[in-house]
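Exercise 3.2. Students should predict the tertiary structure of the chain below and write it as structure tokens, then compare their answer with the key that follows.

Predict this chain's 3D structure.
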Amino acid sequence: MVRSGPDAGLDAVLVLSTLGAPERRRLRGRRGRRVDEAGPEPVPTARATVVRPEPFASRSEAAAWLDSMRREPDAAGDAVDDAVRMLNRALRARRAATADPWLAEVSAERALVARLGYGRGEAIAEGRFGEALELPRAGARRTKRSMEAPEERFAALLGGREQALLAEQLVLRARADLDAGHPREAALQARVALEALIAELEAEGAALGEHRGAVGGAANAALRGALPEEAAADLERAVAAMEAAIRRHRLRGGA
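Answer key:
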């Protein structure tokens, strides 16, 4: 059960399953063994099912909803994004509970498959739908948030021919928090990212400096609680400006 507070209403029911996991008895006492070649190893996959808190009034209402998802790809994509945000809430909670910094969040682009559908509760939890729609891979239906010539730059970074800006990872983390619906975390991350970017990009310093007040105000507000709507909008503009500055830097060849 996913709730935003102890007295809040139900946001969703989240069902997590592991598929194809090796039996525990086969893992016990295993020792290293010599191999002649590195063949592919079967790996388990995870299935996350996000169930809306209120059931449909009837099967016809559920069918009409699914038909609208079929006719409106953008609405279907938004529904998947909402489900991913709910899953990431659980992953954040798990990361905090286990103190595991390496437990990463997920994105729709990384999913093996995404489905929208309806059915009875227990059947849905087991992956069986009354009717369902399997969506195209997210990368095929949406433009990825990638910079120009990423493969070439990847090779340059890996080969030491180019050095990434310190601020790049910080800006990416701020963007991830914004897209995941966590503006408070994004505001705190953006404050550090902005200062790092101003220090690294002299040519962009004056333009980026104009966002210092807004980002600082958003970060201070984040320490007190939820961001006001205006502060959240200012934060979005500041992160977009930082992303644009990094793109320009890359197009100039990192000079």
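Discussion points: The chain has two domains: 11-20+46-141, 150-251. Residues 11-20+46-141 form one domain.
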